[in-house]
Amino acid sequence: MIEANEGLDARGRAQGAAQGEAVRRGSDRRREAVAQAALALFRARGFDATTVDEIAAAAGVSRRTFFRYFPSKDAAVFPRAEERLRAFEALLAPAPGEAAWATVSRACLEVAAAFALVRAELVLQQGLIAASPVLLARERDLDQRWEDALARALARGYPPRRAAALAGGLLGALRALLRGWYAEDGRPDLVALVREVLDLFEGALGADARPGPQDAAPEPPRAGHRPTGAPSRRSSPGRAPLRAGAPAASPPRRGARPPREVRP
C-alpha cells in the first residue's frame, strides 16, 4: 500500500512538472509574439509614434498582458536584454587556473559568436535605438551593467581601479566596433573583429594580460638567499659601498707622515 502511494505521488509530481513546463513554454511564446509585434510596429511607425495599446492589439493580448511581460514600452525593444546579460555573467565564471584576462577574452568571443547568429535582429534593433533618445538612454543603462560585470571579472586579477578602467575601455572599444558592424548590416566576421580588439588590449597590457591574483602571497626567500639591494653582513654600518672596479683604500702604514696640505 505504501509503495502504491509512493508511485502515485511520483506520477503526480511528474505530471505537475510537465504541466508547469507547458505553461512556461506557452508564456514564452506569448511574450515572443508581443515582442515581435512591437518591433514590427516600431519599424513601420517609429518608436515614439507607437502606443502600447497598438502593440497589444497587434499581438492579440490585453494592455494588462503587455505589462505582464514588459515593464515599459522601451523594454519591448530589448526583449532579450536580461537573458543575454545573465548568459554573459555565466561566461565570466573562470575555469580552473584561468587568468582574469583570459576569462574575459573567452567570454567576449563567445558573445560575439552568439550575436553573429542573430545579426538581422540586432541590426534592426540598433536602427530603432539610434533614432530615439529614450532608447539610447536605456541602452547606456544596459551597457553600464555589462561594464560592471566586466569589472567584477577583471578585479579577480587586477586592482579594483585598474579593473574598472580596463572594463570601461574594453566596453567602449567593443561598442565602437559594433557600431561599424551594424552600419555594414552585420556582414563582417564579428568574432574576428572582436579578436582584433582583444589582441590590441593584450598587446598594450603586455605581461599584465596574464596575471595571477594580485593578492597572492609573495614567495618566501630561499635559505641563504640575500634579496637584491639588501646590505651584506660584512658591510660596516655607515660605510659607503664601493663602486664596481674602484680600488679599495689601503690602511695607512704605522709611523707614516700625514700628507701635506696643498695650497693654491
Structure explained in plain terms:
This protein has about 260 residues and is mostly helical. The chain contains 9 helices and no strands. It is globular, with a radius of gyration of 33 Å. The N and C termini lie far apart (about 125 Å).
Briefly summarize what is shown.
Helices cover 61% and strands 0% of the residues. By secondary structure, the chain is an all-alpha fold. The protein starts with a helix and ends in a 59-residue tail after the last helix.
Helix/strand-derived category reads: mainly alpha
Termini separation comes to: 124 Å
User: What is the H-and-E element order?
Assistant: HHHHHHHHH
Radius of gyration, CA atoms, in whole angstroms: 33 Å
CATH class of the largest domain: Mainly Alpha
> Helix fraction?
55-70%
CATH topology description of the largest domain: Tetracycline Repressor, domain 2
Number of domains: 2
Total number of helices: 9
Q: So, CATH architecture of the largest domain? A: Orthogonal Bundle
Mean pLDDT: 82
Beta fraction: under 5%
Q: Summarize the main sheet.
A: none
Low-confidence stretches: 211-221, 227-248, 259-264
Which labels suit this protein?
Tetracycline Repressor, domain 2, 2 domains, disordered C terminus
